[in-house]
Amino acid sequence: MRLRQALLGAAALAVAAGAPAAPVLADLYVPLLTYRTGAYAGSGIPIADGMHDYLAMLNERDGGIGGVRIAIEECETGYDAQKGVECYESTKGKGALVYNPYSTGITLQLIPKASVDKIPVLSMAYGLSAAAEGETFPWIFNPPDTYWDGASAIIRYIADQEGGLDALKGKKIGYIYLDAGYGREPIPLLEQLAQNYGYELVQYPVPGNQMQNQSSQWLNVRRDRPDYMVMWGWGAMNPTAVKEAAKIRFPMEKFIGVWWAGGDDDARPAGEGAKGYKTLNFHGVGADYGAIQDILEHVVKKGQSKVASPDKVGENLYNRGVMNSVFIAEAIRTAQELTGKKEVDAVDVRRGFENLNITEARLKEIGLEGFMKPLEITCEDHSGHNPVYVQQWNGQRWEPASEWFEPMTDVVRPLLEQAARDYVQANQPWPERAEPCG
Amino acid sequence: MGEILYLILIDPFVQMAELPDFFLQVLWEGFVSGILYALIALGFVLIFKASGVFNFAQGIMVVFAALSLVGLYEAGVPAFLALALCVLIMLGLALGVERLVLRPLVNQPDIILFMATIGLTYFLIGLGEFIFGGEPKVMITEELLLPTGSYAWEVMGGLVIFQQIDIAAAVIAVVLMTALGLFFQNTRIGRALRAVADDHQAALSVGISLNQIWAIVWFAAGIVALATGIMWGARSDVSFALQIVALKALPVLVLGGLTSVPGAIVGGLIIGVGEKIGEIYWGSMIGGGIEGWLAYFIALAFLLVRPQGLFGERIIERV
């Protein structure tokens, strides 16, 4: 009996020792909804690493934010909406300051919950585009750009290649997308722009269970002969699409993905065939930034990162994760300044996001000079509709293929506002904004 | 109404006639997909024939085998040595499954064994992610001396492009299926397998070792999984999403019958070619992306006519 008790006691101790420490109340608790497993892990892992490592670096280098340590807890969603909601429900009671769903499907589930639980949701350049309308969605933030900004930017870029918006008339633009909430999100905008500028939009949906079996879609592309292809892909869909495009000899310089279709591992597997493939981006790639070097110094070298090898630090999607955590950290810092408290709560952090103003000077201060364009969030505009640029795969790495340029905000913004009104109509009763501005 | 009938009954065939080179390309792509579906289905059939177990883990075995190969190579093992080690890993897996999963569950209802293979699926997913991580990996195509270029055939006023890796996949699949067919048709073990498939009790009574047969068929299914993983991995990449593609074997099995090797092959080709033609020529009418369910539709339509599948055994039970 004693032996049994001793064994049980030892087992209990082992479990307790292995379990992640619960955040103490004085910590800034930041849950990260990530996916390191499943069909979308190829895209999820570098982002999860980047998000984690920047926050971990702030802990190691600065002792946290404003002297308060950050308690980082990852919850594995597998890019599954149900698991994502489970992660949310199981962590929100621990004093979560903000949620990063990293899935449009999960974001759509959390949007109605955010205002009830009073925890902001940061869906950085994904999720519901209409959420940029801050008066309707005071708890949701989608900087630096919405999907509709992205779609309009790609159309503007194509127009520039062709000699202007008028030259789009009669062109055929193919749109290949993951047939899920994410891939369907920009379709209304692309259809509207097709009406405005006279191009023909041809759609090629890729069901989630066909991500690695796209030969039919690309045979259709070969038959239809679109002038350009636009892609909204994710996970295993991206490298397969790039390979298939190369296989049918589609001109890669006319194949343009959204920012989520631009992982290094999306282009690399196609080898020489991927050369010329383009995607949008809104931040720098590479490790030549002070903050990224600090991550290498304070986190990776100390073995506190899950990154597979140090040369993965600075890859495109890794830096995307870093940028996500920069937004979190800057919102918390802003909340601390606004409230005068060091230990802020989720309501304060929402205010922090709504007053976020990342200037050139601030970027320099945090070691990210030139990494991104300055960003300002307001009560009305939760996105920023920031400039983007086009990057191109040179066979080894991404390199810029355009200057920074603005999305078609003048076209997008009224459509977003209408979409926000439609959302409210479809989701009655939708709460009136009660949160003060400022 | 007339326009709809035209779009369904006439227009697709007009398109085929107008662009015959493209139609040939569609047939070729369907053939390659079909032959790979057939390979996966063959893994299911081998195990079902020998043990009556529907092996839900066949899909993850494809991923696990391919991941092991690339993982070993990335760890510094030369490509062909890694391939040989992978064969040993699949042998170890077969022996492990027979000893730890099948043997303790002998005489249990089929559904219990089926549930056990679902458990095995999740175990292999976890083990694979634990050892190799979740990142997609690039198949070591060139290191295995598999061809990577393409041939363009100018025909009927157009162009048909053949990827060399697809040709290799078709050749390897045909060779593997022929070898397995000959092995199980003409060897003592093959006859024992067929005896076990016909009647477990009778096979046992003449001294056939059920455990040995099970280990052999699981090993054969593992080799088939390895070949499929290499070929499909070379076409896209090696990631856990591949196991979803492997589930495409299910409609193939519905069509070909669970116990028929020729059924798996013919069923695979029908599904592969059928879904490509369906998606290309009829899919756009209803928004595209129909390939995911079209295979099941074809199989179910077939089932209405032949419930036992194309070559499946018709079971008649007198009451």
TrEMBL record, chain A:
Report which superkingdom the organism of origin falls in: Bacteria
**Cited Gene3D superfamilies:** 3.40.50.2300
Q: Quick check: keyword RNA-binding in the entry? A: no
SUPFAM superfamilies the UniProt entry points to: Periplasmic binding protein-like I
Q: Which InterPro entries match?
A: Leu-bd, Peripla_BP_I
Which ranges carry the Leucine-binding protein domain? 29-395
Signal peptide limits: 1-21
Which keywords fit this entry according to its UniProt record? Signal
- Similarity comment: family membership: Belongs to the leucine-binding protein family.
Record's protein name = ABC transporter substrate-binding protein
TrEMBL record, chain B:
The entry's family comment says: Belongs to the binding-protein-dependent transport system permease family. LivHM subfamily.
Stated membrane topology is: Multi-pass membrane protein
Q: Which GO terms describe its cellular component?
A: plasma membrane
Q: Name one Pfam family in it.
A: BPD_transp_2
Q: Which organism is it from?
A: Marinimicrococcus flavescens
**GO MF term set:** transmembrane transporter activity
Keyword Oxidoreductase carried by entry? no
- Residue ranges of the TM segments: 22-46, 53-73, 79-102, 111-132, 167-184, 213-233, 245-274, 280-305
Q: Which CDD domains match?
A: TM_PBP1_LivH_like
| Cellular localisation | Cell membrane
Entry keyword set: Amino-acid transport, Cell membrane, Membrane, Transmembrane, Transmembrane helix, Transport
Question: What's this protein's name?
Answer: Branched-chain amino acid ABC transporter permease
GO BP term (any one) = amino acid transport
So which domain of life are we looking at? Answer: Bacteria
